[in-house]
Amino acid sequence: MMGMGGSSYPPVAAPMNQVAVISPQFCVGYPVDLIISRKMMTLADGTFGVTDVNGNMMFKVKGKAFSMHDRRVLLDAAGNPLLTFQQKLLTVHRRWQAFRGESTHEKDLIFNVKKSSLLQFKTKLDIFFANNTKEDMCDFRIEGSWFERSCVIYAGNTNHIIAQMHRKHSAQSILLGKDTFGVTVYPNVDHAFIVALVVILEEINEDRSGQD
């Protein structure tokens, strides 16, 4: 956990209303730093590990390597499934869907993530809740540079930041074949939701097909 001082990030705004997308149990009233490590050379379970700054496991992301939809499952520290997300096939803009638990049924859809435009020089993704069927205005958005791991997550079309990514490289992580980066989650924002968005962002930008 990090305090309010000594940070190189923009000052944290006054706490906003709670953003509890997956569960209020993942919301706290102060900013939190998470470390996300992606195993680069794996087809097994545990594609991503998420810890706090003290190394305590917070979440894991289990990949289904041979799933037709490129499916991922977000687990809490105890291994309980929180969210399943998968790429929706045959869509013009690359779109991922997130469902509660291990479901992939439409009734359990929580949110959609899609590229805001086909041709992008910088990262820009829009997030829509399942009940926002018109998608005239996004509920959240991600902007920045994925290459630099300097993306910011905003509430809707406002300038209200709810989380921020930053690169974390060490010789050890490179030797272990891991891509490691940090995420600062702002007060009263669902950590599990932010982790899910960052993993989907990673999948969209690291897509091995190279197609949009």
Task: Give your account of this protein's structure.
With 212 residues, the protein is mainly β. It is 9% helix and 36% strand. The chain contains 2 helices and 12 strands. The chain has a 12-stranded antiparallel beta barrel with strand order 1-2-3-4-5-6-7-8-9-10-11-12. Strand 5 and strand 6 form a beta hairpin. The radius of gyration is 16 Å and the shape is globular. The N and C termini lie far apart (37 Å). The model is unreliable at 1-15 and 208-212 (pLDDT under 50).
Tell me the β content.
35-45%
Biggest pleated-sheet summary? 12 strands, antiparallel, barrel
Cα-atom Rg, whole angstroms? 16 Å
- Which percent range fits the helix content? under 10%
Through-space gap between termini: 37 Å
Number of strands: 12
Give helix and strand order, one letter per element, not per position.
EEEEEEEEEEEHEH
Give the overall pLDDT as a whole number.
80
The low-pLDDT segments are: 1-15, 208-212
Helix-and-strand structural type: mainly beta
Instruction: Give me the side-by-side strand order of the main sheet.
Output: 1-2-3-4-5-6-7-8-9-10-11-12
Number of helical runs? 2
Shape field: globular
